[in-house]
Specification:
This protein has 113 residues and is mainly beta. Helices cover 0% and strands 56% of the residues. The protein has no helices and eleven strands.
Length: 113
């Protein structure tokens, strides 16, 4: 079984910061990612990280968000700085296993203007 639990979401003012955390039961996969989905929009890939800590970022968050992983603690984090109202969405942690992504339940991030 795969279980991912996100935490750290909440309400923040524009320009503020939040740190999201993802706890993965049984260990974290070689390829982990963060997605988000805003109301009425398609789920968007934000960042990926490999077992060697190589990372990729979407243009919309590059320079503001940082993905990291701690293999010993089985956690993946997303540090979000300089938040904008358009960052408001449900944020999902994802693990790539057996050729597909598995998502957690998500955590709500709301950025007020």
């Amino acid at each position: 079984q795969v279980q991912l639990v996100e935490s750290g979401g909440g309400l923040v003012q524009a320009g503020g910061s939040l740190r999201l955390s993802c706890a993965a039961s049984g260990g974290i996969a070689n390829l982990m990612a963060w997605y988000r989905q805003a109301p009425g929009k398609q789920r968007e890939l934000l960042a990926t990280i490999t077992s060697s800590s190589a990372t990729t970022y979407a243009d919309s968050v590059k320079g503001r968000f940082t993905i990291s992983r701690d293999n010993s603690k089985n956690t993946v984090n997303l540090q979000m700085n300089s938040l904008k109202p358009e960052d408001t969405a449900v944020y999902y942690c994802a693990a790539n296993l057996w050729g597909r992504y598995f998502w957690g339940q998500g955590t709500q991030v709301t950025v007020s203007s």
